[in-house]
Amino acid sequence: MKYLPNHENRTINNSRFKFYIPIKIKFLIGHFIAIFWLTFSIFISKAWVTSLGQIISMPAAIVIIMGIAYIPGYLISFMVGSLLLDKQPKFAVELPQSPVTILIAAWNEEKNIGATLHQLAKQDYDGDIKIILINNNSSDNTVQTALQTADELGLSMQIIEEQRAGKNYALNTGLTFVDTEFMITLDADTLLHPSAIRYIISRILSAPEDVCAVAGAILVRNSRQNIWTKIQEWDYFLAIASVKRLQGMFQQTLVAQGAFSLYKTKVIQEIGGWDDVIGEDIVLTWKFMKKGYRVFFEPLSVAFTSVPTSFRGFCIQRSRWARGMIEGLKTVKPWQQPRIYGKYLTGVNFVLPYVDAIYTFCWLPGLILALFGVYWIAGPMTILVLPVTILSYLILYRYQKSIFRKLDLKVRKNNIGFILFILIYQIIMSPISIFGYTQELLKLKRIWR
């Protein structure tokens, strides 16, 4: 067994060569498809640009239409074209036995920690699993519940205390107690599929040496609770998963999320652990990439997390994510990334605030005008992005269903959530993201939960 060019980790049978497409070619094909779509969009939107330009000036019209149609269409087309070429490399190591340490930072998780530990006890992993629970100023019975559950299940667990409030402090303290080559961060309310640890360690052991982390696949645990969780189920299942898969395909997954990811312990120690920022996992991942390391994504390694059940909680979480993205851009600029794929993917985040601003301050008012028959901004032309978006979701839906079959899971029926996700999700998300960007730019007080 050896690695193919560009370190695409696939097994070669010397007696019969298997055709493959290098990631460099996939990258170029994806952009060719995106450029074709952009050219087509510009050609058929000439009348729209001209008519809007007569009302607000031509430069302003171009700026608005770029943010509404051209850039989103380009990005979505690139994703669709790339995902059509994606094929996850096979595992070189299918039954790993490497010892691993699980870090769980907990603050008032009495209600959740028991279920999380029960799922750890169900893992079909043959190696030793050590659990370190970092109690971060809990005022409930988190520690007592964890100790009792671990004792009942026969789990190897260590409790340590961290008085300073903040997930970064808790994780950095826990890091000093890790003595295994690999470590996993896991949120206290996140449930692992029984094969999650086996698959995620198989992926890193099957990868080249410069892969320092693998992000797991996060799905929604409480999707049936109310309409907000139903909408978020599709966000995680389709939108977030498609972006993760695209980034993982180019070996530059931009967020090895703290909720569930695997890391090489020595690399985290090398870069000094987690920074004191609200998006500590984003900044950590980008610092990996700046050092020349690669970050993979493993779709078979699935975890289920609890998502916000209220609109206020959803706004706090997503504005925090947007703020974390700005922190990442401030810490590591796209042009500082050593790999072309990292430059491009982080560079996409560089233009997202512009797209969100145009969507919030131009498209939404344009949508209101369209309700009264005024189609200056929102009209038939803006619908052009919709078919490409739906196509990308259909591609990923088929892929996700195949993943679920391998894991003996079933996709829940959630038609109402899907319809609302398609129709209103971006209407909600862009203003929330703008709020998050503004919080970071103005250095407003951090809201953790």
UniProtKB/TrEMBL annotation:
Q: What SUPFAM superfamilies is this protein classified in?
A: Nucleotide-diphospho-sugar transferases (SSF53448)
Pfam families in the cross-refs? Glyco_tranf_2_3
Q: Which GO terms describe its molecular function?
A: transferase activity
Q: Mind telling me which residue stretches traverse the membrane in this protein?
A: 27-49, 61-85, 344-368, 374-396, 416-437
The superkingdom of the source organism is Bacteria
**Could you say which residues form the signal peptide?**
none
Per its UniProt record, what CDD domains does this chain match? CESA_like (cd06423)
What family does the database annotate?
Belongs to the glycosyltransferase 2 family.
| Protein name according to UniProt | Glycosyl transferase
